[in-house]
Amino acid sequence: MRLDRLVAQLELSRKERTVSVKGTLDAAWVQTCAISADELPVEISGEPIDVRFVPQLTGYAPDAEIELESDDLDEIEYSGTYVDLGEAVAQSLALSIDPYLTGPDAEAARAKAGLSTPEDNSPFAALKGLTGKD
């Protein structure tokens, strides 16, 4: 993958030791097709960023199970007096990338390599040949 452009417009607000970051992400990159390995240009614009930096938790056992609420899912822990905005942007970008991106020539490359399609591997593929006629 090659990152050609990355622009983040961010607005920060603070309440006690929690720092809220809201904004948008614009990016352009070149990614390879998961099947044919062709280079594919990808671009996103206006991708929302909404994360909170919260002080690092203390007093919990590393193997303890923690119940997360939906409001807790976009939090990044920090220690000390600084937050890493680059981390927030990098995580938001990572969530925008399709790890199995396929291009227009993917089906031809799949057939040439003798690979099956995802539909052929489904639990219902075995039922495909049944017609219900006796």
Give a structural overview.
The protein is mainly beta. It has helices at 85-96, 106-113; strands at residues 2-15, 18-32, 39-55, 75-78. Strands 1-2-3-4 form a four-stranded mixed sheet. β1 and β2 (18-32) form a beta hairpin.
Biggest sheet features: 4 strands, mixed
Give the rounded overall mean pLDDT: 86
Question: What structural class results from the helix and strand content?
Answer: mainly beta
Shape: extended
SS elements, strand count? 4
Measure the end-to-end span: 53 Å
What helical percentage do the residues reach?
Answer: 10-25%
Number of alpha- plus pi-helical segments: 2
Instruction: Enumerate the spans where pLDDT stays under 50 for 5 or more consecutive residues.
Output: none
Task: Name the helix and strand elements from N-terminus to C-terminus, one letter apiece.
Answer: EEEEHH
Largest beta sheet: what is the strand line-up? 1-2-3-4
Strand content: 35-45%
Rounded to an integer, what's the Rg over CA atoms?
Answer: 22 Å
